[in-house]
């Protein structure tokens, strides 16, 4: 009887050893996969960081170049602003066209939208014409 138990015990030990080997192999495989995925993520993060640094460098170049151009425009603006002021007031009435029944509803709605008419999308052609007068 002792031999039967020892044989069963030896079989169980062999099965346990085999299971431990399979487990160790699976853990190695898992570790290899994790290492590969970590390397991929590290590369991706490096690329993104490099791209972000390049964007920041470009933005810095643009911001440092932009102030140099702005003062020149400010100097020229006051001289130009004094002369055209009267002409700016006169074109405004001429630029608002008169609307009639020959205009389409789409044209009237577009004009109403531009003029800030509230509820223009649900108004009829007659209501749009009245609102645009």
What features would you highlight for this structure?
133 residues, mainly alpha, 2 domains, 83% helix, elongated
Shape: elongated
Rg of Cα set: 40 Å
Instruction: Count the domains.
Output: 2
Report the average pLDDT across residues.
80
Q: Number of DSSP helices?
A: 5
> SSE order, as H and E?
HHHHH
User: Separation of termini?
Assistant: 113 Å
Structural class: mainly alpha
User: How large is the share of residues in beta strands?
Assistant: under 5%
Percent range for helical residues? over 70%
Residue stretches low in confidence (pLDDT < 50, at least 5 long) are: 87-94
The main sheet comes to: none
Tell how many strands the DSSP assignment holds.
Answer: 0
């Amino acid at each position: 009887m002792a031999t039967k138990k020892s044989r069963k015990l030896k079989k169980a030990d062999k099965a346990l050893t085999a299971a431990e080997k399979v487990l160790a192999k699976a853990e190695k495989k898992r570790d290899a996969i994790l290492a590969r995925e970590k390397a991929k993520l590290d590369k991706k993060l490096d690329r993104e960081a490099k791209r972000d640094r390049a964007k920041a460098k470009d933005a810095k170049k643009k911001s440092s170049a932009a102030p140099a151009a702005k003062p020149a425009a400010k100097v020229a603006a006051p001289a130009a602003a004094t002369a055209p002021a009267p002409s700016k007031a006169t074109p405004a009435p001429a630029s608002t066209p008169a609307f009639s029944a020959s205009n389409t509803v789409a044209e009237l709605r577009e004009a109403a939208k531009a003029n800030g008419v509230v509820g223009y999308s649900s108004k009829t052609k007659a209501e749009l014409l009245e609102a645009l007068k």
